Amino acid sequence: MTDLKTLPNTRVEELIDRARVGCDTSLGELLDSYRDYLYKRTHVDMQTELRVKLSESDIVQDVMLLASREFGSFRGNKEGQLRVWLLRILHGRLIDGMRRFVFSEKRRLSREVAGGNASMLAAVDPGDSPSVRFSQHEEAARLLLAISELPRELQSVIRLRYLNGLTFSQIAEQLQVPVTTCRRRWFEAIELLQEELSQAVATRIGR
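Request: output the structure for the sequence above.
Response:
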């Protein structure tokens, strides 16, 4: 990956020292020197599923604002330490985006998944029981990972249905398969996700 930071390490470390004693101008120059680098990392690290939901520029702006506000908590004094700290903030924002994506998907699923698929909803939204509750990070990561591990033809239906908001007729037209095939693949995908998420909850309980 191309390193887009342009300031030499000595200048970065000088700005860190000045920013730490309250120089807002130095802090602004310091953080702005990482803007392009953060754009690059956002583009590389952002899950494909999130690109239709989140703006890369908004993510980077959030990181810059949060880093500016929380700079007092940064304890390092080296360029590499600052880079790691900024990436930690960036990944936190991306994880938060995944969590919001999961909540959005749960609302969609609640309207479409019924009967035997109810346990999937319980797995994704386990309620207030501390014995089965995923952390927000685990919850988001597990659902996205489960989707990514589906067979390709099932992934296509799930992504087009939930990320693009297409009807089964529109999906069938795009994939050039019968509508009945789309519905069958959708049901199979839901069944597999239900099984995967239920197993994850059982594993969590058994720890």
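The CA atoms of residues 8 and 74 lie 20 Å apart.
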